[in-house]
Amino acid sequence: MHEDDLQDWQHGHCFGQDLRRPGERRTLVVIAITATMMVVEIIAGMAFSSMALLADGLHMGSHAAALAITAFAYIYARRHARDPGFSFCTGKVNALGGFSGAVLLATFALLMAAGSVDRLVHPAKIAIDYAIVVAVLGLIVNGICMAILNVEDHDQDHGDHHEEERRDRHHRDHNLRAAYLHVLADALTSVLAIVALLAAKYLGFTWMDPVMGIVGAVLVARWSIGLLRTTSAVLLDRQGSVSIRDSVIQSIEADGDSRVADLHVWSIGPGVFAAEITIVAHSPLAVDEYRARLPRDDCLAHVTIEIRECAATAAYEGRSRDAVA
After folding, report:
1. Using CA atoms, how far apart are residues 136 and 53, in angstroms rounded to an integer?
2. Which residues, in sequence order, are CB contacts of 229 under 8 Å at separation 6+?
3. Domains 3-235 and 242-324 belong to one CATH topology
4. Runs of H (alpha helix) within the chain
5. In angstroms, rounded to a whole number, what is the distance separating the alpha carbons of residues 82 and 317?
6. Cβ atoms within 10 A of the Cβ of 164, count?
7. Where does residue 49 fall: left (phi above 0), alpha (psi -120 to 50 degrees), or beta otherwise?
């Protein structure tokens, strides 16, 4: 067979991962804003001898580092999209970046909880006025960053079966969601801090500061667990949602003769699924006929179909040929 004859049957495995995703540019803008705010707060903290400003500046630095992982994942996935060393391109780098961000988010939650508990046990004097200014400024900056990232369904993790299927079909950018959650966690910290500081300033409830820190840590931990669950499912090749699998089975078995004996559907990138289908039939159709039946709204970018003739039919036809002979 000539090489040219194979071209109609060969295809690339890039699946659009070489294109710049919208989240990449947004993340870079947020990193620039966060890093600038970090530098301003650290310089101001040193100039005014304010530990509150200095601490918040270092906190901004930790989130800038986490966002840098998100940006690196975008850039690495795009630049290595055509590397033949990756079986299904670099789509899972997106999930890996999201998973790494979730781990850092969980770490920040633990540090928040530990620091808050320590403050409850060992109360310290708070520079309330400085701290309020820092919290309000941080909230404004994080609000701007959240608007830039603009992730839909960012905090929906109800664990409901239908909700899981809906999210699966929307093919979320896990890497961008990790970046959003880092900014959201920072904004939540600022909101809780403002509430606690106002309570301490006007009501004398200084204990509100560490308590709000614990509340924030619990919420951040919950978000991180949800993101860990969804990204690990992609990294471990968990089966696609029930609705996607049912859609494939119903489309193949529409003729009443063909049956799906084995089916594997898994995510190979944001909005991209691969599938391996074994079909058994008494009168098998051509591969292209089965392929044409597949649903077109489930983003099945790479499909391998194996066709088997029903053993009972093959045995019957063999006996019939022997009888004629």
Report:
1. 12
2. 157
3. no
4. 3-6, 22-47, 51-79, 91-121, 128-149, 161-170, 174-203, 208-235, 242-252, 287-293, 311-324
5. 48
6. 18
7. left
Q: 260 - beta bridge partners? A: 279
Average pLDDT, stretch 269-293?
89
Q: Which residues fall within 8 angstroms of residue 3, CB to CB, at 6 or more apart?
A: none
User: Cα-flanking dihedrals φ and ψ of residue 158, to 5°?
Assistant: -80, -15
Structure tokens at 149: 């990232």
For the beta sheet containing 300-309, the strands, ordered from the edge strand earlier in sequence to the opposite edge, are: 259-269, 272-281, 300-309
Do residues 309 and 284 lie in contact, with contact meaning Cβ atoms separated by under 8 Å?
Answer: yes
Cβ neighbours of residue 35 under 8 Å, at least 6 residues apart?
Answer: 60, 61, 64
Q: Cα separation of 189 and 139, whole Å?
A: 8
**Please, are residues 148 and 30 in contact by the beta-carbon 8 Å criterion?**
yes
CATH T-level fold of 3-235 = Alpha-lytic protease prodomain-like (1.20.1510)
For residue 255 the two structure tokens come to 């003729």
Q: How far apart are CA 195 and CA 198, in angstroms?
A: 5
Least confident of 64-68, 167-171, 266-270: 167-171
What CATH number should be reported for the domain whose range is 242-324? 3.30.70.1350
Mean pLDDT in residue range 192-199: 85
End-to-end CA distance of the chain: 36
The residues spanned by each domain of the chain are 3-235, 242-324
**Which CA distances in Å does 304 have to 48, 239, 287, 301?**
65, 16, 10, 10
Q: DSSP letter at 239?
A: B
pLDDT 10s digits, 73-89: 888 888 887 777 777 77
